[in-house]
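Protocol step 4 of 6: structure prediction from sequence.
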Amino acid sequence: LHSSIPGVLADHNLFVHASLTGSVDKVVLEALAAGLPVLTSSKAYANEASAGLVFNFLPKDSNSLALLIEKLYDSGILEPTNPISEEAYKYVKNVYNLDNLIGNIVDIIKTKI
């Protein structure tokens, strides 16, 4: 069930997103909202990566993923009280909330009319 996702995510220290679609997947945003560091192979999260909330690894490259996990583990980011958890939650709340989404859609429509 969708309602159980926050509880499942709360039991983990990182989220691995090995997607080749290149699109924004809701599950990544849910992981960020739960305060988890996200490791992804998707280029769709460039803004989040530049903000230090998402970490990229090469698609279809398990060695790249393993090295990234090791690097993050050594840095302390994978600890339950990681330094990005509050920032990740705030980012998702501010950027992806429904009020902002509707406003952005209206702005796009206005430019097309």
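Step 5 (inspection) to follow. The mean pLDDT is 86.
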